[in-house]
Amino acid sequence: MNIRKAHRSDRTCIAKIYNEVAGKVEGITRRPDEITETYIFSLLNKSEDECIFLVVTDDEDNVIGFGHAERSNLKAYRHILSNYTIVVSPKSQLKGIGRGIFMGFMDYITKERPDIKRLEMEVKYDVDRIKLFEATGFKTEAIIPGRARYIDDTFYDEVLMAWENPNFKA
Fold this sequence. Notes:
The structure is a single chain. The chain has helices at about 10-20, 35-45, 95-110, 125-135; strands at about 1-5, 50-55, 65-70, 80-90, 120-125, 140-150, 155-165. It is of the alpha+beta class. The protein has a domain at about 1-115: 3-Layer(aba) Sandwich (Aminopeptidase). A 7-stranded mixed β-sheet has the order 1-2-3-4-5-7-6. Helix 3 (about 95-110) links the parallel strand 4 (about 80-90) and strand 5. The longest helix has 16 residues, at about 95-110. The model has no long low-confidence stretch (mean pLDDT about 90).
């Protein structure tokens, strides 16, 4: 497993994995019709100051997962990366790839981005999932009842979680 910055040439692989997972795996908020080439192209074309996008590749350099988070344009929130998303190809799931992305992403921020204080994500309320993310260093900050909808339009609670960069410098 190798972690590197995403390239524009990864767009097709990223779209394929996103579409394989969206709507089928709990925890992916974005729905299949919301994952367009334009959406992925827009993420990959943002500067690293606006979006950190890392991919995980296998030994043959095939993309098997990725993580990305975006930075607000509002000055009051420039120290925050939010909408942290992790996606792993179905055939690579349950092999520690997701945890590797989590740890690699936080390691990258710690070493390369002292301007980032917080990494935030919203996750479906699920005790086991929360414990998993807390084990990587995230802290639960709030439970938001009925915040998101499943594809069948029923509501579910989400948890706001955050990790803080120990090397942050204002």
